Amino acid sequence: MKLSLIHVCCILLTGIVLLTGCAVAEEITITDITGTDVQIPADVSRVVTVDPFSSQFIYVIGADDRLVATCIGPANRELVNKTQKRLGALPSAGCKTNVNLEELMKLEPEVVISSVDYTKINDDIERVGIPIVKIDLEQADNLAKSYDIIGKVFGKEEEAQEFIDYYNQKMKSIQETGDSITDTDKKTIYFGQRSPLQTLGDDYYEAEIARIIGSANVAQGLSGGDNTVTIDQVYNWDPSVVILLPYNSANVEDILSDSAWESLPAVQEKQVYQMPKYLMSWELPVPESILGTMWLQSMVYPDAVTFDLAKEIQDFYKKFYRIELSDEDVKNLLQDKSKVVLNKPSSS
């Protein structure tokens, strides 16, 4: 069959257009939290998270259908399975530094989302040629930036920005209230981590939200989340408020009835509280942490806050998690004393 010159030109032009279109759409460049440019497919469909907190934001922006494996982390698995069925059904290649590289490679991910802190496993993932986008959720400023990066990975910039705008607006309002607290009225917080005499340093997200609400973590100079201290050290710090995290081995009643703690002014004044949780613990760097920040300020400075916490909780879960909570649900949530299992990863 003979083709005219016009037909040949049309075929060539069509091929050029198609090739050009594919080249444009084939890959995009994502700049991660370290400033590293990472090439990934423009329409990414096989993503693995090894960070235990990012999967919740991926759900919030409606991109969980692109995950082929995820690290759920210290979440309420029963609730995750009920309300986040895709996440609950996904396999895991490991969490944090406990990542099985062989299993990860079998999943054939187009990109892995990991924390900037997981140095060794990040190096291993890069070594085998899998694109890796690093985020940092432990700093309040980097949390919003990391959410923006995740939004770009999935092409969900608008959905990500909607949450970021909400987060920034709430945090700004909380900080304005915190800034209005006079020096004489400022209170300090002791965070009981896995056990009453285990606390977290000033480089952790919990210490950051303490600053934002107008308070401070008493464990100045410590770093990391597993610092064992003595009861004498707690008395020397003399915190205004004791906050037990949901994975603490003790509860509020345990501290109030413990003879070792009974002379601490915060205990005598019953300024001992346990951080709430729902899908995940509210003080962890997940979307729910904004509720933890509001809750913390309402506990430490009840006379200074102007928001209705119960309404904020209901609005938040309806807007971002598609979950309708009744007044009774909120009451039960705030009174829930069940424990969270927080597995300790091996060092990186």
Mind explaining what this structure looks like?
The chain is α/β, with parallel strands linked by helices and 348 residues long. The chain folds into 2 domains: 28-158, Nitrogenase molybdenum iron protein domain (Rossmann fold, 3-Layer(aba) Sandwich), CATH 3.40.50; 163-335, Rossmann fold, CATH 3.40.50.1980. The chain contains 15 helices and 14 strands. The chain has helices spanning 5-26, 54-60, 77-83, 85-89, 101-106, 119-127, 140-154, 157-179, 205-212, 231-237, 252-256, 265-268, 289-300, 309-321, 327-335, and strands at residues 27-31, 37-41, 47-49, 67-69, 94-95, 98-99, 111-115, 132-135, 188-192, 198-199, 216-217, 227-228, 241-244, 272-274. The strands form 5 sheets. A 4-stranded parallel sheet has the order 4-3-7-8, sandwiched between helices. It has a 4-stranded parallel sheet with strand order 11-9-13-14. It has a two-stranded antiparallel ribbon with strand order 1-2. α7 (140-154) packs antiparallel against α8 (157-179), α8 (157-179) runs parallel beside α13 and α13 (289-300) packs antiparallel against α14. The longest helix has 23 residues, at 157-179.
